[in-house]
Specification:
The complex is a heterodimer.
Chain A (H helix, E strand, L loop, with lengths): L3 E4 L2 E4 L5 E7 L5 E7 L5 E9 L2 E4 L6 E3 L9 E3 L8 E8 L7 E2 L3 E5 L1
Parallel strand pairs in A: 2-11
Antiparallel strand pairs in A: 1-3, 3-8, 4-5, 4-9, 5-6, 7-8, 9-10, 9-11
Chain B lengths: L2 E4 L4 E4 L4 E3 L1 E4 L5 E7 L5 E7 L5 E4 L2 E4 L9 E3 L8 E8 L7 E3 L3 E6 L1
The chains are: A mainly beta, B mainly beta.
Chain lengths: 112, 113
């Protein structure tokens, strides 16, 4: 039981490049979400999903895309990276009806 | 909109000292309140929660009481250990069971032996 896993751990991108941050969970949780953590600002919700095929926007969705084709996976896509997207990204999962309970170890992204 | 304000950090204490980390919130309705802990190099872990006024959440010696009259959810521990060194986040969710957590800015706690 690996819990919530995220890849890569660290990534450097150039402005305008695209990439996908991977998130997977093996607990059969219905709910999954993506947060970004910036210094002095806590975590902010980007996108979330309450089940396969269902996604919705959070507080800061611009510049990010998500899909949920399976219960296990919830990838986050950066369409055209910008320096403002430099941050640490956390994926979280939880059973239905419960707020984010299990967080992955994070992906540190640097956009130059 | 909803917001959470935590006491400014960093906080440095000696082992066995009493800990209080202040958290106040602004929200519509009756939010659920949470404390998360982030150890160095790791993701967040849910530490404790309270879902209605006067509820006390507790875990690992930490406690927090949901005070609606003062819109507060202060985290306390009677005797801290070096292993408690981490960043602590207060958060709320206005809609029961929803995914939309609003976090405070975090408080870095360092415990010296």
């Amino acid at each position: 039981n690996a819990g919530v896993t995220q890849t890569p751990k660290f990534q450097v991108l150039k402005t305008g490049q695209s990439m996908t941050l991977q998130c997977a969970q093996d607990m059969n949780h219905e709910y999954m979400s993506w947060y970004r953590q910036d210094p002095g600002m806590g975590l902010r919700l980007i996108h979330y999903s309450v089940g396969a095929g269902i996604t919705d926007q959070g507080e800061v969705p611009n510049g990010y895309n998500v899909s949920r084709s399976t219960t296990e996976d919830f990838p986050l896509r950066l369409l055209s990276a910008a320096p403002s997207q430099t941050s640490v990204y956390f994926c979280a999962s939880s059973p239905a009806g419960v707020v984010a309970q299990y967080f992955g170890p994070g992906t540190r992204l640097l956009v130059l | 909109g909803d917001s959470v304000t935590q006491m400014e950090g960093p906080v440095t204490l000696s082992e066995e000292a009493f800990l209080t980390i202040n958290c106040t919130y602004t929200a519509t309705g009756y939010p659920s309140l949470f404390w998360y802990v982030q150890y160095p190099g790791e993701g967040l872990q849910l530490l404790l929660k309270a879902t209605k006024a006067d509820d006390k959440g507790s875990n690992k010696g930490f406690e927090a009481t949901y005070r609606k009259e003062t819109t507060s959810f202060h985290l306390e521990k009677g005797s801290v250990q070096v292993s408690d060194s981490a960043v602590y986040f207060c958060a709320l969710s206005s809609i029961q069971g929803a995914q939309k957590l609003v976090f405070g800015q975090g408080t870095r706690l360092t415990i010296n032996p």
